[in-house]
């Protein structure tokens, strides 16, 4: 099995130049040539940022709603009460609850991908912070998942919101759609994502903000991108 994978990967490597920095147009134009899996592969962007996230003023974290969506089915849970719970249900939330949902989480039953909470419920959510935090699904105002506008938050996450957060090494990685998307949809999503990263540039970041970037598919090698072109996407 390993030989088959290696052979497939070697064939894909022939379709790219690892020494080259591709323009955005070149990389997007070549991405569909790298499709090799039997499933609808995710288009993945990875960026190396010129920030030191150990310092609070250089943390890069936020969200963006991709114009063409992510191509994934996202299960959304909401912790709210009374009319806010009703709004969440009306907006299409998969799970809505309060104390009962907290008990489900404590029992290890996490049947959702995104958790949204109203601000007044965050004291309750704090009880399961140690469970949600490591999984990356703790509600946070910076990603729009702590809000009184639960209907909009549900719609955004159902409709293609991508949350991003720089890791300790200054890297950000995200899926921006599926290879089955049209060329126009892929470009729109790519540009929306890069623009969102640029909008979150910390004032404390000096020099070139995006040091490097790559574009790839789930099962493909990556293409190196021209970083100045990424920086110029505002």
Commentary on this structure:
Keywords: Repressor, Ribonucleoprotein, Ribosomal protein, RNA-binding, rRNA-binding, Translation regulation, tRNA-binding. Part of the 50S ribosomal subunit. Pfam families: Ribosomal_L1 (PF00687). With 234 residues, the protein is an alpha/beta fold. It has two domains: 19-69 and 161-232, Ribosomal protein L1/L10, rRNA-binding domain (Ribulose 1,5 Bisphosphate Carboxylase/Oxygenase), CATH 3.30.190; 76-158, 3-Layer(aba) Sandwich (Rossmann fold). It has nine helices and ten strands. The strands form three sheets. Strands 1-10-9-2-8 form a five-stranded mixed sheet. A three-stranded parallel sheet has the order 5-4-6, sandwiched between helices.
Brief synopsis:
InterPro entries: Ribosom_uL1_bac-type, Ribosomal_uL1, Ribosomal_uL1-like, Ribosomal_uL1/biogenesis, Ribosomal_uL1_3-a/b-sand, Ribosomal_uL1_CS. The chain is α/β, with parallel strands linked by helices and 234 residues long.
In total, the number of domains comes to 2
Helix-strand sequence: HEHEEEHEHEHHHEEHEEH
The CATH H-level homologous superfamily of the largest domain:
Ribosomal protein L1/L10, rRNA-binding domain
Number of strands: 10
The fraction of residues in strands falls at 15-25%
CATH topology of the largest domain: Ribulose 1,5 Bisphosphate Carboxylase/Oxygenase
Biggest sheet, in brief?
A: 5 strands, mixed
Q: Can you tell me the overall shape?
A: globular
Low-confidence stretches: none
- The pLDDT mean sits at 94
Overall CATH class of the largest domain: Alpha Beta
Distance between the termini: 44 Å
Rg, Å, rounded: 19 Å
The spatial strand order of the largest sheet comes to: 1-10-9-2-8
CATH architecture classification of the largest domain: 2-Layer Sandwich
Helix content: 25-40%
- Judged by helices, strands and strand pairing, the structural class is alpha/beta
Number of helices: 9
């Amino acid at each position: 099995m390993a030989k088959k994978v290696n052979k497939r990967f070697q064939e894909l490597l022939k379709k790219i130049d690892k020494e080259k920095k591709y323009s955005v147009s070149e990389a997007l134009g070549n991405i569909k040539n790298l499709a090799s899996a039997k499933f609808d592969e995710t288009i993945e962007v990875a960026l190396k940022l010129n920030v030191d996230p150990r310092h609070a003023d250089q943390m890069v974290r936020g969200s963006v709603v991709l114009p063409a969506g992510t191509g994934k089915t996202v299960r959304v849970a909401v912790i709210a009460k009374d009319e806010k719970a009703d709004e969440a249900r009306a907006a299409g939330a998969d799970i809505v609850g309060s104390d009962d949902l907290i008990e489900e989480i404590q029992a290890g039953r996490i049947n959702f991908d995104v958790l949204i909470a109203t601000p007044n419920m965050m004291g309750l959510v704090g009880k399961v912070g140690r469970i949600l935090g490591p999984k990356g699904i703790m509600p946070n105002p910076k990603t729009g998942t702590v809000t009184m506008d639960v209907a909009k938050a549900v719609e955004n996450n159902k409709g293609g919101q991508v949350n991003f957060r720089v890791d300790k090494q200054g890297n950000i990685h995200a899926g921006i759609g599926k290879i089955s998307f049209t060329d126009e949809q892929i470009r729109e999503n790519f540009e929306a994502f890069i623009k969102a990263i640029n909008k979150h540039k910390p004032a404390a970041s000096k020099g070139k903000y995006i040091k490097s970037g790559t574009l790839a598919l789930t099962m493909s090698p990556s293409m190196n991108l021209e970083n100045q072109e990424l920086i110029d996407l505002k």
